[in-house]
Amino acid sequence: MLLGRSKPKKPDLDRLFALPTAALTLEAASALKPTGVGAVCFRAAEGAAFAQIESDVRELLDAREDGPKVELTKDSYGYSWLVTRHEPTDLEGLVTDIHAVNSSLEAGGFGPQLLCSVVVFAGPDSRKTGLVYLYKRGTFYPFAPTSGERRDNALELQVRAAVGADLPVENDLSRWFPVWGAPGL
Fold first, then answer.
1. What phi and psi, each to the nearest 5 degrees, are found at residue 17?
2. CA distance 131 to 152
3. Are 185 and 120 in contact (CB under 8 A)?
4. Global pTM value
5. Is 64 within 8 Å of 73 (Cβ atoms)?
6. CA count, 13 A, side-chain hemisphere, 52
7. 1 pLDDT band (50/70/90 cuts)?
8. Which of these, 95, 104, 22, lies nearest to 55 by C-alpha position?
9. Is residue 3 within a helix (H) or strand (E), and if so which, with residue range?
């Protein structure tokens, strides 16, 4: 430790595979179920190397016989989202796709461009909640948007309490960044 700063934690993408277990807990505690939508957010880089990796990832995920093609979107803040969809009951497949996208970008040297991944859940009232994985922190937090770019903080805290034993939840609430416009939310 130099000047009181510790070295940042290296992301552990395998933590994503804890999501199916957390989903069972979340459904039992809060009646939230996976919607089958997940997305990886990144800052697109310029150049042929990044374009090739992005193309390879899309081709890999589009090769699935059982699902729709992967979609690339941009939000109003200029970030790119690679969206994948599965049957709501196939959370394992969705998590595998999200892991593949993150791993491919990281292996290609584009880890610094990765921001977060989101898996979308819905309650019986159809309100959406995302479990957000912060790539650089290796932690999760809930994001429950409401109308007009507001959040349901009570629901977010309820989700945190429900999944805290299954997932490494971000303790610093100031890092629970809103992901307005995230696909599926």
1. -70, -5
2. 14
3. yes
4. 0.87
5. no
6. 6
7. very low
8. 104
9. none
Orientation of helix 91-107 relative to helix 48-62, angle to 10°? 160
| Cα Rg of the chain (Å, integer) | 16
Q: Which residues pair with 72 in a beta bridge?
A: 82
Instruction: Give the model confidence (pLDDT) of 160-182 as tens digits.
Output: 999 999 999 999 999 999 999 89
Phi, psi (rounded to 5 degrees) for 110: -105, 25
Three-state SS annotation for 166-185:
CCCECCCHHHCCCCCCCCCC
Name the nearest CA neighbour of 13 among 103, 132, 82, 111: 103
Kindly list the domain boundaries of the chain, sorted by start residue.
13-175
Joined together, the tokens standing for residue 128 give 């959406």
The Cα diameter of the chain in Å comes to 53
For the chain, the straight-line distance linking the first and the last C-alpha, in angstroms and rounded, comes to 40
